[in-house]
């Protein structure tokens, strides 16, 4: 059985880690370099760094901050925010990222997924999908969740896989920051149609929620932010708990 992954997420705004609820009401959660070091030491399987206002601000990801985080950790490191070209990806990989995450730029130009997968390999390309339930349908949103798009979430997930994405980072805007649990039904649907790993994000509030997302949701990885940033759950404790529940973990 493949091991499941626990992934802390650093949402970055103005060089600081922030966390909100349903993508709004952001509050400071600390220094990203210091947090990254703690998570690597605690046994996080990977780290995700998302410059959440890069696309809205019309700028590139904070390269120097990416470099500082990369120098601090020894675990796989995914970076997203404001990425729209081969040159952007090259710069981030040279700064120490292992994988890159694209969202708004993939929706705007789906051929970018093909281009990046061909240039760097699918294993390097994560497509992030921010989704909200609107009028009885799961709808893709871009620009940090600010802009609804005429794309259905499940169909888009399948399309990005066909175009060469190596992973899907699925964030439910409805559950994000609520600590009420992941969007299990949607996660299971995406996991069912996709033959690539699905990272579930949005809603983690307890260790039981991770059991649910790995079993009912069929996710390959569980991503969370506030419960780790504010020390509500420690990663070693979470991994031990999951192993006791029969879920394979790398300790």
Automatic annotation (TrEMBL):
Keywords: Amino-acid biosynthesis, Cytoplasm, Histidine biosynthesis, Lyase. Its main location: cytoplasm. It is found in: Cytoplasm. Pfam families: His_biosynth. GO terms for molecular function: imidazoleglycerol-phosphate synthase activity; lyase activity. Gene3D superfamilies: Aldolase class I (3.20.20.70). Its EC number is 4.3.2.10. It catalyses: 5-[(5-phospho-1-deoxy-D-ribulos-1-ylimino)methylamino]-1-(5-phospho-beta-D-ribosyl)imidazole-4-carboxamide + L-glutamine = D-erythro-1-(imidazol-4-yl)glycerol 3-phosphate + 5-amino-1-(5-phospho-beta-D-ribosyl)imidazole-4-carboxamide + L-glutamate + H(+). Pathway: Amino-acid biosynthesis; L-histidine biosynthesis; L-histidine from 5-phospho-alpha-D-ribose 1-diphosphate: step 5/9. It is an enzyme of class 4 (lyase). It comes from the Bacteria. The active site is at residues 11, 130. One of its GO terms (biological process) is L-histidine biosynthetic process. The keyword Amino-acid biosynthesis applies. One of its GO terms (cellular component) is cytoplasm. InterPro entries: Aldolase_TIM (IPR013785), His_biosynth (IPR006062), HisF (IPR004651), IGPS_HisA/HisF (IPR050064), RibuloseP-bd_barrel (IPR011060). Belongs to the HisA/HisF family. Heterodimer of HisH and HisF. IGPS catalyzes the conversion of PRFAR and glutamine to IGP, AICAR and glutamate. The HisF subunit catalyzes the cyclization activity that produces IGP and AICAR from PRFAR using the ammonia provided by the HisH subunit. PANTHER family: IMIDAZOLE GLYCEROL PHOSPHATE SYNTHASE HISHF (PTHR21235:SF2), IMIDAZOLE GLYCEROL PHOSPHATE SYNTHASE SUBUNIT HISF/H IGP SYNTHASE SUBUNIT HISF/H (PTHR21235). This is Imidazole glycerol phosphate synthase subunit HisF. It comes from Spirosoma arboris. The lineage of its organism: Bacteria, Pseudomonadati, Bacteroidota, Cytophagia, Cytophagales.
